[in-house]
């Protein structure tokens, strides 16, 4: 009896490649690239127009992306503003800490280095002043929670340093108030400076802010033994 012919199964239909690459980039990589373009465009629009005069369409036009790509990453204009603000804040924090770390363990030298790094960062690009100094305050988007969170971080760091540097303070010290007041002074000084088109050299600007820190250092150093930090 002849053997039955072997039936070869038909080839399986091709499976769609949902992770297809275009120009060497995957879908997730292209999405990340679009987000970066939107952030860069938003920095330019917010920095030049100000938050009140900025729109989602202006940002999309600057990024050369369709509106739908904006909503792929951001729900509102406020959300992308916070993303830009977060990026600039992280950049300037790295700049400050890098410069401070290069100084000897001297509070005045470290403060001068940090102030210099901050003011130079602002002067390098006037758009940063608009976003970090003007809109961050007037919009209320970064206050009070985000600002307080950053001040609290600095306060925790300084509390440890103050405890080591001034171990026999004779007064209670509320570090949050000290740091908050100092940060507020620096922001106000930088805002006025930017509105005056950076007319004062950075080293002179640092001098006008270091007075407060020098006074604090002298005051704390002059205190006798006693109460702990608040």
How does this model look, in words?
The chain is mainly alpha-helical and 230 residues long. The chain folds into 2 domains: 22-75, Arc Repressor Mutant, subunit A (Orthogonal Bundle); 78-221, Tetracycline Repressor, domain 2 (Orthogonal Bundle), CATH 1.10.357.10. The chain has 9 helices and no strands. Mean pLDDT is 81; it is low at 225-230.
Chain-wise SSE layout:
Layout: H1 27-49, H2 56-63, H3 67-73, H4 77-101, H5 107-124, H6 126-138, H7 145-165, H8 175-195, H9 202-221
- Spell the H/E element sequence: HHHHHHHHH
User: Strand content of the residues, in percent?
Assistant: under 5%
Task: Based on the coordinates given, report the CATH architecture of the largest domain.
Answer: Orthogonal Bundle
What average pLDDT do the residues reach? 81
Unreliable sequence segments? 225-230
- Cα radius of gyration in angstroms: 27 Å
The CATH H-level homologous superfamily of the largest domain = Tetracycline Repressor, domain 2
Count of spatially separate domains: 2
Overall spatial form: elongated
Class based on secondary structure composition and strand pairing: mainly alpha
Number of E strands: 0
- Major β-sheet profile: none
- Tell me the distance between the termini: 101 Å
In DSSP terms, counting alpha (H) and pi (I) runs of 4 or more, how many helices? Answer: 9
- What fold name goes in the CATH topology slot of the largest domain? Tetracycline Repressor, domain 2
Oligomer: single chain
Q: Share of helix among residues?
A: 55-70%
- Give the CATH class of the largest domain: Mainly Alpha
